[in-house]
Amino acid sequence: SLSTGLDLPGRFLFATLTLMTLIAILVFIEEAVYIYRKIPSSKRSIIIWINAAAPVISTTSCIGMWVPRSTMFTDFTAGIFFSIVIHKFLMMMIKECGGQKVLLRRFENSRFTISTGPCCCCCLCLPRVPITRQTLFWLKLGTFQFAVLRPVLIFLSIVLWTNGNYVLYNLSPKGPALWISCFIGALTLFALWAVGILFRKVRILLKCKNIIPKFALYQFIVILNHLQTTVINILATQEIIPCAPPLSSTARGSYIAQQLLIMEMFLITVISRVVYRRKYHDLEPPERACEEPVDNKQAP
């Protein structure tokens, strides 16, 4: 078994990482109670969802660390949850601006810059798009499709895996793993692109609500949960990460990725508690900004 195969330093590492996961869960529960009591109901569930991303990924990684055969299911669970969180983050930015109607009134004569990462950061020749109800709908659709289609593709992967057709580390063109992974990667890029377009527009307006640190935490989760894990898995598949009996290269790479995620998600959980717990002033209605110049003109 796993516990008998560990030496003393290994058992201490596993115990420490498990303790960090439990602390992250307790910190999140305490933060969720605070949000439920102090935050308006219109924003409450969205902020709880976003704050739950790091503890959920830490928990699934801890389960995968203790039960190696569950790695595929734990990774899929974390992936499904975070696909929903990406959509929730975009909705949170709209809510912080006062809702969709208020956002459209604030930026009625402005435009979205779509030449932003991760899809079109080099395409500076792309036109700027007017901010309308329709363009805002397409941004929301960009994250919503990811929250819907990724769970469907993951369910398809599990069905193929139970039938023996899906092998997680088999990236040959003849296998379904490569094509499903590429399709999920394309959906991820479109969802992150939609969030980046809206963030680039509202970051100055929402600076008083610390939207930049919140966006940075969200980006860190994306990079660590997707890019870091993918790089480690590729290194393990190519046997650049050496095997350490009784662990193969792929199993050892999976262990390294899970242990790193537990530590990183613990830090992000603690930092998120500080960033989201502050009390921020509500934005002034857009009418005031329009009324002030009129009053100044009428004063003489």
Provide a descriptive summary of the structure in words.
The chain is an all-alpha fold. It has one domain: Rhopdopsin 7-helix transmembrane proteins, CATH 1.20.1070. The protein contains nine helices and two strands; from the N terminus they run ααααββααααα. Strands 1-2 form a two-stranded antiparallel sheet. Helix 2 packs antiparallel against helix 8 and helix 3 packs parallel to helix 6. The longest helix has 31 residues. The relative contact order is 0.13. The C terminus is likely disordered. It is a multi-pass membrane protein. Pfam families: Solute_trans_a (PF03619). Its main location: membrane. It is found in: Membrane. This is OSTA protein.
Task: Provide a concise account of the structure shown.
This is OSTA protein. With 300 residues, the protein is an all-alpha fold.
Topology diagram in text:
Elements: H1 8-38, H2 41-66, H3 71-96, H4 100-106, E1 111-112, E2 129-130, H5 133-162, H6 176-202, H7 211-237, H8 249-277, H9 286-298
Antiparallel strand pairs: 1-2
Please give the share of residues in helix. over 70%
**CATH uppermost class:** Mainly Alpha
What count of structural domains?
1
CATH topology: Rhopdopsin 7-helix transmembrane proteins
Structural class: mainly alpha
Query: Architecture, CATH level 2?
Result: Up-down Bundle
Low-confidence stretches: 288-300
Mean pLDDT: 81
Let me know the largest β-sheet: 2 strands, antiparallel
- Give the N-to-C terminal Cα separation: 85 Å
Biggest sheet strand line-up? 1-2
Features:
300 residues, mainly alpha, two-stranded antiparallel ribbon, transmembrane helix, membrane, OSTA protein, transmembrane, Ostalpha/TMEM184C
